Structure formats: C-alpha cells, structure tokens
Amino acid sequence: MPAHQRVMALAKVLEYAYDSGLGGDEHATIGVMTEVDRPHLRLEEVSLDDAAAGLREVLRLARALGRISEEAVLLDLINTTACEKLGCRICAIAIRGDDGAFRYSATTGLGAKEIRALPSRVLSAAGFEVLEAAARKMGAVWCIPAGDPALDHPEVVQAMLPSRKAGGRDPGPARLLPLVFAPFFAADGAPLGFVHPAEPKHDDFPNQPEALLLETLAELTVVGLEIVQARVLEHAAVVVAEAQRRQLEDLLAASAQVRGYYSLDEVLAEIARAMTTAGGFGRAAIYLLMPGEVLEVGATFGLSHAESDHLRASTVTLTEFAPLMQPEMLVSRSYLFDHRRFQMPQALSEKMNTPALDGDWKDGQWHPEDTLTVHINDVDGALLGLISVDEPLNGLLPDRAHVQAIEFFADQCAVAVAHARRYEQVRAEALSDPLTGLANRRALDAAVMRAIGRARRDAALCAVLFIDIDHFKEINDALGHAVGDAVLQRVGRGLRDRLRRGDLLARYGGEEFVALLPDTDLEAAMRVAEVLRRRVATLDFKTLTGDLPVRVSIGVAQLSEELMGSGSLVSAADAAMYEAKRQGRDRVVAASAAIGTRRS
C-alpha cells in the first residue's frame, strides 16, 4: 500500500476508535495486562480520558505527515510526541546506515554534553541481533529487563541510551529500568531503525497503552520516511528536469555563439568552453581528425597549461583512441567509458592525461578513468573530430538525456567547424602565394600593421628582413621560367625552415621575400638574416641551375618612431637590401647604414 494510503487508513482507524469507544464517559476505565520485568501479571486501571488524549495526539501526528517534506522535521515531531505522551525525558530515533549500523539521527531532551557524546553511540548489526534475541516483546515494542546480560554486551553497552527514572540523577547503576525501544522495518522485513525513549516518569514503563502508542509512533515513522523519500525523489525529478531544460537552453545559446565565429581556433575554443559551462563538465578537449587518421588537439578547457601542453604533444591516432569508443559503450550516439566495465590501455591513459583518483571517491560516482566521447560528424556522417569530456560538475555518470543534449550541441558544432574550415581555406588562398605557399603581399601588409599596433600599445619590438635572389633574371633568361619557379620554391622552403615559430615569411613579388620578426631588435635580426643568407648559399641547386649559383642579398630594418607605417618599415629594409647589392651582393646590410639610398 502506498505511504499516503497507509497514513489515511491509520488515521481513519484511530478516528473510528476514538469516536466509537473513547469519546463517552470521561471517568470510565479499561483493564489492561502488562508483563514488563515483573514476575507476575496484574490488572491496571487506565483512564479512558488518558487513552483518548493519546489517540487524539497520534491522529494529529498522522494527519501532519501529509505536510512534512523533510526528514529532520518528521523525526523531531515523532520524538517530541513520544516525550510528551509517554512521559519520558528523552527520546531518540536511530536510522540504519549502508554499513548496517544504527546511528542516532534525531534526539529530544538530551543535554549539550550528551549530544556531543551521541556520535560515539553506534549500534552495530550484531548488537541489534543481540538485543532482538534478549527482548521481551509487547507487540512491536522490545523490552530488555534491567540487569540482563545482553545490556553489557560489548556491541550494546556503549550504543544505547541508559534508562533511568526521570528526575533521578543520583549515582548508581547505568541502567535502573528496562531498556525499551520500538524497531521499525521496511516492507521486505529489513530493519530500518528504532524509536528509543528513555528516563520515563514511572518504574513500570511501559504499560500496555504506552507500548501501543510507542508501536504506533514507530509505524508512523516508517510511513513518514516513505512520504519524505517520495517527496525528495519527486523534487529531485523536478530539479533534474529543470536542470536538463536549462542545460539544453544553455547549449542552444552556446551553439549560436559557436556558429558566430569564423576562425577555426575560435570555434574550437568556444566548443571546449561551452562543454564546461553549458555542458556541465569540468574538463574538455576538442580533437580534429587530420590526414593519416591523426587526432590533433584543437582546444582544451579546464586543464592546466602543463596538462594542455602534454595533451597537444601526445600524438593519438583514431586507432589508438578506439578502445574508448566500443559499441558496448554506446549511450545514444556517444561513448561512455566506465572504468568498472572496461580497462583503458596504459599507453592511452598516459596520453589522455588521466588525473589522480580523489580519496573521497565512492562507487557510483565519476572516476578519473571515466570519459565521455562525442562525435562531431558533418552532414554526410563523416567524422570531423571528437569532443572528449570528464569530471562532470555533479560528480555523477551522465544519463541518456544529458548525453543527447550534448549530441545536439555537437551537431551544431559540426556545422560551425565545417564553415570555419572552409573560411580558413578561402582565407588562406586569398592570403597566400600560389607558387610557394607562403603568405602573399596582402597578408604581409596586414601582419606588419598588427605588429605596428602592438608596438604602439605595448612598446613591443619588431624587425623586417627584405630578401632578394641575386642574378635571378639570368637564371630565368638562361634556363626558363619553369626552372626559375622551382628555384623560388626551394629558396622559400629554405628560408622558412630557418625561421622561428611566430615569424612570418611572405613572397613580396618576383624574386623578393620579406620576413617579419616580432619581438626582435636590430642586432638579433642581423643574426637571423645572416643565418638565412648562409642557408640559401648551402642549398643544392645543381640539378636546377647547373653552374649558376643561387645567392641572396638581405636588408634589415627595425621598427622605430620614424618607421611607424607598413610601407615605410618595409621600404627601409628594401633600401638596405639594395645597399647590400651595391656593395657586392650575397651580404646583409642594416637600414641604418642605407639612409639616403634609393632603388636603382
């Protein structure tokens, strides 16, 4: 029977008992039999008025269960009612934990010192069995007589509250009265806890009506706990549904944000960020599928710089990643790697930056070796990349609804990734030289202007090298333009190989190249120019030009107040390059030594 039906049935029974048998003569009496730690049975006179008052209180309590939604409020109400109607100074309720031990969850009537000692009072499952074997039962109430050996059992002696007569604080034995409590059980018969009153007002506690009331309170505790649990689950379901709705809204907003970017780097960075905000995970890595089935890290979020660098430096192929994407791991269209069911290869674990296990981890929570992998597929189903996430913010394994929300987001991301790749392809074609693959003059002008803006803002250094192939016209005239083009390509590759990451090499036009060197002063730029000059001189051109040598002249200019313009900075390096030619070619000259020189 559902909990709320049990409450209503119990309330009806109590109401009927009061109306039919206990609502008449206030001074009538009933006879009851008691057998609690006494050698013989005797008849007691119990006022019907007292019994009716007790039943009224239980009826009030039963009806109150319909309004209670917190366990602490329920247990406090049970304890308070027990103390008031049973005449006990103390009442406590113990609840069984996952380890089978019973711990006090709520108490009434204890002093501060007694409350501080309460955490140490734990009744083990074995102690509960000892009490059950020793108990004299009055219905569902268990009584263990004072002096019974069970009360001195090691599993019991420190667990239960000592029972004395209320108001009697004289030193004496720890237990002067029987130990009385009412256990309550789940529908399958498993013990859930017990209601434990202590320090009653009279020595014959409990008489039959008191035992009946205590038994009723224990049953109401079970019903109340079921109601509270049902309400908690209902509230949790509402919270989850609301969270899923908000998450989907957040992911929709994030997908719109992602699709607003044109740069592939920005798109990937926004996807990673969205997975740790709207997606609900603490760490994310976005992989792009590259030629050769290599998975290249495009963006990370939530990782330290060291972790991100390690992940980017660790080359992972689609085949190596396959153990995390097995059919039996599918949740919707994604793959949930659960460490309890699968084992990650050690080599892959090292590449994946698997974090250390938290000492507070419990079974059922997210484990550092767990991971969720979501495919990014284009409209034709082809794999573009992967979203790999871990450390969910709620600490739990994601459910199907959560995964499907992320998949919807990933579908939007796929469109953004495809558009960004196409944009960058078109942009690269517009800003690159078709013969050498280097940046073209348009890209160079834009990069120089950015460097000048940075210099104005941050006082950053910048230098330019203007490079020209010596006697190139003779090569073209003697050997043809096809050989000339091959020479340009080989020189371009040779120059690019000796530049640093972050430097820009562009084909300026004809046989001219320009190198932009950020964060470089004139002295350092002269050294780089000399390295480039020697590099070209050592390249093997014999199969192309035979006995005709290939050399370069280089002019160097450093950005200064006088050269705060793209044209003037490059022109200064160009003038220095012509001074190098005038001095005999195959050499490096700085712009400061070429002032006043003009192109001839």
Short description:
The chain has 600 residues and is an alpha+beta fold. The chain folds into three domains: 228 residues, GAF domain (Beta-Lactamase, 2-Layer Sandwich); 172 residues, Beta-Lactamase (2-Layer Sandwich), CATH 3.30.450; 162 residues, Alpha-Beta Plaits (2-Layer Sandwich), CATH 3.30.70.
Question: How would you summarize the topology of this molecule?
Answer:
Layout: H1 3-21, E1 29-34, E2 42-47, H2 48-64, H3 71-86, E3 88-96, E4 102-108, H4 112-117, E5 122-123, H5 125-134, E6 136-138, E7 141-144, E8 179-185, E9 191-200, H6 208-258, H7 264-277, E10 281-290, E11 294-301, H8 305-313, E12 316-317, H9 318-321, E13 330-331, E14 334-337, H10 346-351, E15 371-377, E16 383-392, H11 400-431, H12 441-458, E17 462-469, H13 472-479, H14 481-497, E18 504-509, E19 512-518, H15 522-538, H16 542-545, E20 552-558, H17 566-582, E21 588-590
Parallel strand pairs: 20-21
Antiparallel strand pairs: 1-2, 3-4, 3-9, 4-5, 6-7, 7-8, 8-9, 10-11, 10-16, 11-12, 13-14, 14-15, 15-16, 17-19, 17-20, 18-19
Helix pairs in contact: 1-2, 1-6, 2-3, 2-6, 3-6, 6-7, 6-11, 7-11, 13-14
